[in-house]
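This follows on from our talk about sequence and fold. Can you supply me with one protein entry, sequence and fold together? Could you add the entry underneath, on a fresh line?
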Amino acid sequence: MDDEQQIVDGLYDRLDTAVAETLAARERVLTTSDDPHGRDVELSRLTRRLGELRAAEHALCFGRVDTPAGHSLHIGRVGLRSPDGEVILVDWRADAARPFYAATPAAPMGLRRRRHLRLRNRRVVDVSDEILDGSAPAPGDVVGDGPLAAALSRARTGRMREAVSTLQAEQDAIVRSPHRGVTVVDGGPGTGKTLVALHRAAYVLYAFPAVAARGVLVYGPNSRFLDYISDVLPSLGENDVRMATLTDLVGAAPTATEPEEAAREKGAAGMAAALAGRVRARQPRGVPLEVKVGQETLVLTPAEVDAARRHAIREGLAHNPAREVFREHVVDALVDLLERRTADTLARLDAEVAAMLGVDLDEAVAGDLRSLGLDDAPAAEPEFDWDAVREQLLDDPAVGQAIEAVWPRLRPEDLLGGTARTRADLALLDEARTLVDGPPEEVYGHVVVDEAQELTEMEWRMLLRRCPSRSMTVVGDFAQSGAATTIRSWPEAVGERFAHHTLTVNYRTTAEILAHATPLLARIAPGQRPSRSVRHGEAPRMLTADLETVRALAGEEGNGLVGVIAPPGLTEALEGSGAIVVAAPDARGLEFDTVLVVDPAAIESYRESGPRDLYVALTRATQRLIVVTPAAG
C-alpha cells in the first residue's frame, strides 16, 4: 500500500493546487472582466469546477487498471493533470474509465488487473485486486473480496450513498449510454435503479454540455425519498441539480384527500382535453362585440369576432396571451369600421352640399388648383391619424370591457373550481396554468424520474412540458405501482421512442427475503421474473405480537438502521422505539438493515394497491425481515 499511498499523496497535492488555481481564476474574473455576460458565464464554469474539486476530497481516487504490459491508469471522482499536461487521474465518467467498470474475466478488455482503493482522510486503508486475464497472482497483487461485498454488508445510515466505485457492468452500461432521448430502466426492488438514475444524471452533466447548460431535474415521489437520496449527487460533485416533488414543481400543497377512484379519474389523460374544452368555452364563438366609442356605438359582427379569435389562437398561445392578440385584431377591425363610417359620412356630406348649392365641391376645388397650375393635384380629403386612433382604442376602458364580455381573462383556478386541492388536483392545476398563461418558464436539459410507476398521465404531461428536449432517465417497477397511477406500460408514459434497459441482479435484498416475497410478486405481476440476489442471509421471521412488543422489538434491533412499516392507521401508535416508522404507501425507494412489517393483512387491504404496497414493504430490508401479525385483543 506504500506505493499507492505515494501516488495518492501526489494526487491530493495536485487537487489542492487545482482548487487554489480555480479560486485565483475566479478572483481574476471578478476583478478584471468588463463584460457582464462573459463574466457570469465564466464564473458559472469556475464555480462548477470548484464544486467538483471540493467534492472529490472524499475518496479522491478509488480505482486503478493495469495492462499486461504494465501500463496503468488511476480512476477517481474528477480528472486531474500534472503541470505538464499529463493525465494523472481519470474522471470516472470519461471513456478511458469504462474498462474499470465493464471488464470481466470473460472479457478483460485488455486488462490484467483491476484494483480497488479505499481511502479515509487521504490515507489508503485498503487495497483489493481482481485478476482479469487468467494469469496467476504476482507479488504485489492483493486479491480480496472487493468493495461490492463490503458495501453490501455495510450498515445503512438513512441516506443513500453514491456507488461510483462499485457500479456493476450492467449498471455502468446504462449510466454511460450515448442515447440522448428517453432512457427507461426497470427492475425489481434492490437492483439499483435509483443509483443508476443518479449516476446517469452526473454522467449527462459531464458528457453533454448543452444539456448541462439547462440543468437537471430529479423528480421523486415525496420529500422523505428526496431526503434519502439527497447526498448522492453532491458527493459526485454535482450541485446544480434541482430535486423536486409534485408539490415543489407546482408550488402548491394538497389540502384535502379523495377516494382512489376519483384520483385515478383526475390523473387520466382525458382530463387535459376536458380542461382545454373549458378554456375554449370561455372564448367567443358566433357572438357580436359591441363597444361605445365617443358618441358612437360600434358593433362587430359574429363573423368579424370569429375571425379575430382564429387569428389569436392560430399562434398557439395560451388563453390570456391569446386574449391580448385577440384584442389587437378587434381594435384593427374597429379602426377599419371607423374608417368606413368616416368615408361614408364624408361622402354623404359632399352629396348634401352639392344638392343644396348645386356645386360639386371636389370639382370646384380641383378647378381652383388647375388655375394655379396644379393640374395633377389630388382632390382635397380630410386627414385622420388612424395609427393614433388605434393606440387610443387599445387603451380605451370601454374596449377593455367589451373584450372582457366575450373573452374574459382567466385564472388557472377558474378551470378547477372550489378551493380544496387534492394531490391529483395539483397536476390539473399545472395543466390549467399552461392552458391559461402558457408553459412553465423553468425547463431543464435532462429530467430524472424515480419511482416512475407512481405517476399518472397528467403528471407525465407536467414533467414532459418541463423537458422540451425529451432527454430523460426514467426508472421504476410496475410491480410496485401505487393506487392512483393510470399508467401500466412505458409507452403509455413516454411514447414509443425510448431506450429500454432491465436490471436483473438484486444487490440489496437477500435471496431468503426475495424468496419470501416471490409468491406475492407472482400474484401482482405474473409476467415479471424475480431478480437474482447476490447475497444470502437470515430467513424471515414470523411473529404474533401486540404493538407494545413491536415497539420493544424495534428498539432492541440495534444492528444498523431499523424501519417499521405499517398500515397508515398504526404508524402513530408505533412511534417511540427509536426506529424509523413509515406508512406502507410511503415506503417506496427506502431501505433499512432490519424491517418490521406490521400487520401485513391490513397493509394489503388498506387500498386497492395494497398487495403492491405489501410487496414494497417486504423488500426494503438488506439484512433482516420480521413480519408481525398483531395479537388478538
